[in-house]
């Protein structure tokens, strides 16, 4: 048996998988990715993610939250829906939530309000929180840090920041999710250089499929759509950057994911 991996962030409720979702799941399993956390990021995708988890026979779990891009749509109904969904044991985290000032698809005030409300849910339901931050570090820390004592665990999903912000997140107790961004020699060289700062017990890996296809895959895939079967490539590059074996990275990230999301043993 080869290495076994857990993809902690895959948007496989995305409509780009509607035509071949079962085949994609089989390709992932063939690559050793037998467990995935399906990211919920809007009212619609939260419901789809949980539905996929329910139908998966234990291979999939999901999150429930509203991404900052959709924060303008966050309503009392959204809030109530997330609170209802997290009662399901297959929903293992609140989020994806946070702040994104890079695109500002939603006004900043709406983003801040939705972020705070979802952190309140995570504290009340005692489930971990799946975090998004882009170009909003200072506000992100200002909102998150005082609330962390009431939250069980938190992961900085798809971390792409610099060493200073990485050290700050680690000091705050966050887990760090690494994607195929680290495989991008144009944008990810700094991440390659600092990923070794993450302690073994705080490292998680993810594809963020269908986004962030690793650029180091050879031969180069015909499609630019990322999918969970490419998680071993993220693990390989992370292992190389950390001067560790891929078997070690697989073992620690799998153990960390099980602990972080309180997943049942296989």
Short description:
This protein is α/β, with parallel strands linked by helices.
| Strand order of the biggest β-sheet | 1-2-3-4-5-6-7-8
The sequence of SSEs as H and E is EHEHEHEHEHEHEHEHH
Under CATH, the homologous superfamily reads Metal-dependent hydrolases
Per the principal axes of the C-alpha atoms, what is the gross shape?
Answer: globular
Biggest sheet: strands, sense, closure? 8 strands, parallel
Query: How far apart lie the N and C ends?
Result: 15 Å
Radius of gyration: 17 Å
Domain module tally: 1
Summed up, the helix count is 9
Mean pLDDT: 95
Helix fraction by DSSP (H/I, runs of at least 4): 25-40%
Provide structural commentary.
This protein has 266 residues and is an alpha/beta fold. The protein has one domain (5-261): TIM Barrel (Alpha-Beta Barrel), CATH 3.20.20.140. It contains nine helices and eight strands. An eight-stranded parallel sheet has the order 1-2-3-4-5-6-7-8. α2 (43-55) runs parallel beside α3 (76-85) and α8 crosses α9.
SSE topology sketch:
Elements: E1 5-10, H1 21-30, E2 33-38, H2 43-55, E3 60-64, H3 76-85, E4 91-100, H4 108-125, E5 129-134, H5 137-144, E6 154-156, H6 163-171, E7 175-178, H7 189-194, E8 203-205, H8 231-242, H9 246-261
Parallel strand pairs: 1-2, 2-3, 3-4, 4-5, 5-6, 6-7, 7-8
How would you describe this structure in keywords?
single chain, 266 residues, alpha/beta, TIM Barrel, 8 strands, globular
